[in-house]
Amino acid sequence: MISEANTRIVYMDNNATTRVAPEVLEEMLPYYSDFYGNPSSMHTFGGQLGKKVEQARKKIALLIGASPEELIFTSCGTESDSTAILAALQSQPGKRHIVTTRVEHPAVKHLCEGLDKLTGHKHKVTQLQVESDGTIDMQRYEESLTDETAIISIMWANNETGVIFPIEKMVAIAKARGILFHTDAVQAVGKIPINMAKVPVDFLSISGHKLHAPKGVGVLYVRKGTPYVPFLVGGHQEQGRRGGTENVASIIGLGKACELVAAQLDDENTRVRALRDRLEEALMKAIPRSILNGHKTDRLPNTSNISFEYVEGEAILLHLDRFGICASSGSACTSGSLEPSHVLRAMGVPFTAAHGSIRFSLSVYNTEDDVDYVIEHLPKIIADLRIMSPFWQEALKKEGEAGSCGCGCK
């Protein structure tokens, strides 16, 4: 078994969270010490921070092609998701049908599943099935819409597989029916170009810690003219749309992060994509019985989800951790569960593979050396784990392949 000490950190779990960019931290620090006032204060010391918040709002709006006044600062992507869905329902009391998918992040999935208990009203939730490659059948999507549909909530890109949904086409269909559309774009913003002028969604969610800003800050985009009911009621902050004193330092950090990722989009979609492709191609060549989960091309440039049959994802992660390699077996919000990923189950990934899925999610901070390091160690990890797996040995016997799998098994 593996005995090498952990001598370095190779971080490939960026869909779970990202490092705060050094430039972002530098931008934030003065607002924890020298400029600590409340932006709602009447005095200049506090009031000057309001201008900094608005500057950050403009930077974020520029990244997604929105108007600054259409952005509401929140605490995270989950709050943004809840606010959008509940606002749509409260502003249309006669409509209680929601269309979403079976592969949404728990922030949307669990909210929709628990709406009846939360609101005291009966709702109908349609969770669209996905194809084996994680994509959506557009005919099935269109047929799911009714006159009672209050809102459609479909993620821009899946957090586990990176599969990108055709949001522009979906929104066009929704608009033709007069139905509000929300997209959780937490994984997409900063990785692929997004322009609200071209894709007229009504609500869009952003989370700072997914794009090299700190945790604890998010954004909800609300298109001008969209009916809206606040989720957090209190003070006059955010033009009365979200009560609570602004998280000034983090908002300023998020503005700087959006400025940085806008300048790095080309790198994300060329160099990072090439690193991702080399990583998955090398691993799948070196490790028999490996399955790429998700559409081959319609994916985020940084995300690779691979299943290794007859091994446990948790065991793989523990051994990777001994080498300082950070990856994931699914969403960070559900990785404590021993159940296979709900995303992979929805895609019909075989049980023998779903338990052994690993997600590698890169960033602009990853290098060729990082990829080489994972390629060097993971095949041996899988081989060692399979030697101890009775299921693997049984599979080899059934197919008459014992000793010929190519991964070091006997």
Q: Layout of SSEs?
A:
Elements: E1 10-11, H1 22-28, H2 44-64, E2 71-74, H3 77-90, E3 97-101, H4 106-113, H5 115-119, E4 124-128, H6 138-144, E5 149-153, H7 167-176, E6 180-184, E7 203-207, E8 218-222, H8 248-286, E9 290-292, E10 303-308, H9 313-322, E11 325-326, H10 342-346, H11 351-354, E12 357-361, H12 368-387, H13 390-399
Helix pairs in contact: 1-8, 2-8, 8-12, 9-12
Give a description of the structure.
There is one protein chain. Helix 1 (22-28) runs antiparallel to helix 8 and helix 2 (44-64) packs parallel to helix 8. Helix 7 (167-176) links the parallel strand 5 and strand 6. It is globular, with a radius of gyration of 23 Å. The chain has 2 domains: 10-19 and 265-399, Aspartate Aminotransferase, domain 1; 22-261, 3-Layer(aba) Sandwich (Aspartate Aminotransferase, domain 2), CATH 3.40.640. The protein has 410 residues and is α/β, with parallel strands linked by helices. It starts with 9 loop residues before the first strand and ends in an 11-residue tail after the last helix. It contains 13 helices and 12 strands. The strands form 3 sheets. A 7-stranded mixed β-sheet has the order 2-8-7-6-5-3-4, sandwiched between helices. The protein has a 3-stranded antiparallel β-sheet with strand order 9-10-12. A two-stranded parallel sheet has the order 1-11.
